[in-house]
Amino acid sequence: MDNVKSIGFIGLGVMGKSMAKNLMKKGFSVNAYTRTKSKAEDLIEEGCTWCESATEAAEKADVIITMLGFPSEVKEIYFGEEGLLNNAREGSILIDMSTSSPTLAKEIAEAADKHQMTALDAPVSGGDIGAREARLTIMVGGNEEAYNKALPVFQAMGTNVVLQGGPGMGQYTKMVNQIAIATNMIGVSEAISYADKAGLNPNLVLKSIGGGAAGSWSLSNLAPRMIAGDYEPGFYIKHFVKDMTIALESAEELGLDTPGLKLAKGMYEELVTRGFEDAGTQALIKLYVDQA
Amino acid sequence: MDNVKSIGFIGLGVMGKSMAKNLMKKGFSVNAYTRTKSKAEDLIEEGCTWCESATEAAEKADVIITMLGFPSEVKEIYFGEEGLLNNAREGSILIDMSTSSPTLAKEIAEAADKHQMTALDAPVSGGDIGAREARLTIMVGGNEEAYNKALPVFQAMGTNVVLQGGPGMGQYTKMVNQIAIATNMIGVSEAISYADKAGLNPNLVLKSIGGGAAGSWSLSNLAPRMIAGDYEPGFYIKHFVKDMTIALESAEELGLDTPGLKLAKGMYEELVTRGFEDAGTQALIKLYVDQA
């Protein structure tokens, strides 16, 4: 295969759309499909080729990127009758950039081999701002040769691109990321609610503790929102619960007991029960504020 | 009271000794007492005045600093018959820089008032390196006038000095710090042990996740030691358990349920049971590594 020129892009949510735009900016031709065509309108205006199905997007492309919500959707778009494995060209590189199950990523890679394709798993972090500014972290698993071919594609969307190992290793790395975040969110919430109960000025407390051993991205970026009562989503609780569900299943498959992750998942599920699924993850503080 | 010239310093452990040295460097005369005189030998060589008791150290000083291990020791040194409240000069400023109970700090401040003294609580973070390099964070609670008088003393030992409020507020702030650390240590340990179980190279994973939303001081500084199997103490598990015990009691007094802190405290107590009390806090990873 020569240099990648044509990309199929499936899934144009907040993240996917920004990523597709950045690919177009770098000169890739983008064949886009998403379930709700209206979501693609501005992308079509900017010159992408609209496709009526995932199959059509796949047929025209050297590299096919999927950016979907749930593992069940990933499974359908790869393994379904109308799916990529049955319809993409031989030699295609299929890249799932959704946050999805490591085990499913391995299954896709295996199936792709049988269809003379190559699959990479390449979930991202950096949020909507990282996607817009082409500053995503991209954690890649899969075949090294395919990774090298796809590297200019990744570099059009992100700044920190690392091949973490073979199939599934990108998804495993993303799970490591989510596991580290999950329990720390509890610590940040307990710290801020304790400060509040003690009669401290929590913002002044951050001046004392933010730069030291208690410091974290969440403490710097989300604690001020907790203090301000600002629950606008940077990262949705419903998506975090999905990720923690995958992470916990995966940890169990690996024979690892993770009490912190279990606690965090249970607390966030409680927030969903209370109607906070569309709030940002910093709304965890609600469970503490509303204890009294 | 004029400018502070003479300081009584009680408690010359790893932290206390470095702090006393920095006070001497800045021209304060230091009257030192600690239970084991041999610990003070190099300080005596450098020109501190050795005192045979806490009382003697207190009698000569404008400001008396205590840097002790446990709240029980703090209680004895302040309230005991030979203690500071019964023996320091009227007008003295008593500063407890130990990490201790916020409630005890309030009791000391109240008792000091009755003795025509002023007490400040001023615990620190920054560890042995921060103490040595006079770069401690100092979280102060108490009377503002006394704080202002003592400020040159604090500035001889630390760079981030903040008056957090009235009596006890320094200790409350330190507890906020420890609470934030406690649960994050679980997240870091679970992240690293999951990475390891998944067959990832954990150091390479840190390259992907260290600078983003999963990032924290503990992930940057302690995860590499976990990965290397290096359990040398930066901060002793036995001291962390002491701090979490104070924090949990304090949270309960405030009517706040802190499941993350409870989980962390239980896990660290399990490590003590397994003989790791003198290891660094990063040894929490042992509970995960040794699951199999």
UniProtKB/TrEMBL annotation, chains A, B:
<feature type="domain" description="3-hydroxyisobutyrate dehydrogenase-like NAD-binding">
    <location>
        <begin position="168"/>
        <end position="288"/>
    </location>
</feature>
<dbReference type="InterPro" id="IPR029154">
    <property type="entry name" value="HIBADH-like_NADP-bd"/>
</dbReference>
<dbReference type="Pfam" id="PF03446">
    <property type="entry name" value="NAD_binding_2"/>
</dbReference>
<dbReference type="Pfam" id="PF14833">
    <property type="entry name" value="NAD_binding_11"/>
</dbReference>
<dbReference type="InterPro" id="IPR015815">
    <property type="entry name" value="HIBADH-related"/>
</dbReference>
<protein>
    <submittedName>
        <fullName>Dehydrogenase</fullName>
    </submittedName>
</protein>
<dbReference type="GO" id="GO:0051287">
    <property type="term" value="F:NAD binding"/>
</dbReference>
<dbReference type="InterPro" id="IPR013328">
    <property type="entry name" value="6PGD_dom2"/>
</dbReference>
<keyword id="KW-0520">NAD</keyword>
<comment type="similarity">
    <text>Belongs to the HIBADH-related family.</text>
</comment>
<dbReference type="InterPro" id="IPR006115">
    <property type="entry name" value="6PGDH_NADP-bd"/>
</dbReference>
<dbReference type="GO" id="GO:0016491">
    <property type="term" value="F:oxidoreductase activity"/>
</dbReference>
<feature type="active site">
    <location>
        <position position="174"/>
    </location>
</feature>
<dbReference type="GO" id="GO:0050661">
    <property type="term" value="F:NADP binding"/>
</dbReference>
<dbReference type="InterPro" id="IPR002204">
    <property type="entry name" value="3-OH-isobutyrate_DH-rel_CS"/>
</dbReference>
<dbReference type="InterPro" id="IPR008927">
    <property type="entry name" value="6-PGluconate_DH-like_C_sf"/>
</dbReference>
<dbReference type="InterPro" id="IPR036291">
    <property type="entry name" value="NAD(P)-bd_dom_sf"/>
</dbReference>
<keyword id="KW-0560">Oxidoreductase</keyword>
<dbReference type="GO" id="GO:0016054">
    <property type="term" value="P:organic acid catabolic process"/>
</dbReference>
<feature type="domain" description="6-phosphogluconate dehydrogenase NADP-binding">
    <location>
        <begin position="6"/>
        <end position="163"/>
    </location>
</feature>
